[in-house]
Write a structure and sequence with these properties.
Layout: H1 2-14, H2 23-49, H3 53-59
Length: about 60
């Protein structure tokens, strides 16, 4: 979130007429991206945990 605030300030100086300091939007976007990252990590891990390690090594 600190990076998002820093980028918002940088964009605010580049485009003075636009407003980039909306806290709920930044928090919502951060929560959305964290959720997407967790799902992207969970799905392959769940698939990998369904087979045994011996079978996985045997297939390689």
């Amino acid at each position: 979130m600190l990076g998002a605030v820093g980028i918002a300030r940088l964009l605010g100086t580049a485009w003075p007429g636009m407003q980039f300091d909306n806290g709920p939007v930044i928090a919502g976007a951060t929560a959305f991206l964290i959720t997407i990252a967790l799902v992207a990590c969970y799905v392959p891990a769940r698939n990998a945990s369904r087979i045994s390690a011996v079978n996985a090594l045997r297939l390689e």
